[in-house]
Amino acid sequence: MIFRPIVPQEINAVLAQIRPDPSTAVSADTVRARLADGEYRPGWIWVAEPAPGQAPLAVAIWWGSPTDPRPSNLDALFARSDAISGPLPQARRLPRGPRPTTDPRSAVAAALLTAAHQVFAADGLTPAPDYHLFLPPDWRDHPAIAASVAWRRQAAEAAGLRLTAERLRFEWETDRPVPALSNRLFFTSEPDDEVFVDLFRRTSQRSLDVASTREVFLVGAEAHARSEVSFYHWEMPGERSWWRIARTLSGRVVGFAIPSHNSVVPVVGHFGVLPEFRGMGFAAEVLAEATRILAAETDAEVIRAETDLCNHPVVGALELVGYRDRTHRLVLSAV
């Protein structure tokens, strides 16, 4: 078995292996478009082939922004239903290879991911990029989708992506009324990034956000806060002037909001309430202000926001403001 990235001349052969699947929206047209945009690159598309010149048994596609030198996350994983069963050839086994799997698709896909992860690590990319699967909210209720997720999840776990988080993507649509302004809070702009660094650091305490908690554990609250502020200021296309501080009528700081924009739509990039003000309903009011700003400043049909399945206070705030649960993003990660 050969595991390797493709070369540009092989794109059409790889696209022939990408077929409609209930657990992914990535299609051959998606691959072509993202290759043209620089979000996919031949070196980030890996195949498992039984022998030189033979059709791939599995394809893995990583995504990154056009300016990224390395991929950010695994975007799609495909394997043929007639993928080989039984152990992989011993000559291709890796020192810290995948755990045994029962589905032949999982076995070959796990070996492919493991090989790619080792090359990424040698190039300085550690831990391995997360794997993101975009699914309907009721995906567990559909056997075909659940089965499609199951073998991919088994492959990812066998290749070292053993931690799971489920993100909920909510959308607020322009046919809904703009949320009313709060009568308990007022909002001000703040040009000093250091103020937002401090608020990020303080709101990370006892946070229910899985990714933030993980990053704080790995790098510390201060470094995480600075990384987040830098990301929203310099990497996201949203306007810096949209950022807001939330205060009580007496002037006490309650929290903050960072309305932003990704490459497609306006997004509630981040909002937070300080620990001492949680449980009082302020999250919905801060979110409403972020939504009002985005509705006024953009002409998009939808505004998006994400949170974790386990983050019940934020889920409640989103629903209260009028956001609707549209998509779930299953995130499989190494740490």
Automatic annotation (TrEMBL):
This is Putative acetyltransferase. PROSITE patterns: GNAT. It comes from Kitasatospora setae (strain ATCC 33774 / DSM 43861 / JCM 3304 / KCC A-0304 / NBRC 14216 / KM-6054). InterPro entries: Acyl_CoA_acyltransferase, GNAT_dom. It holds the Pfam family Acetyltransf_1. The keyword Transferase applies. SUPFAM superfamilies: Acyl-CoA N-acyltransferases (Nat) (SSF55729). Keywords: Acyltransferase, Transferase. Its EC number is 2.3.1.-. It is an enzyme of class 2 (transferase).
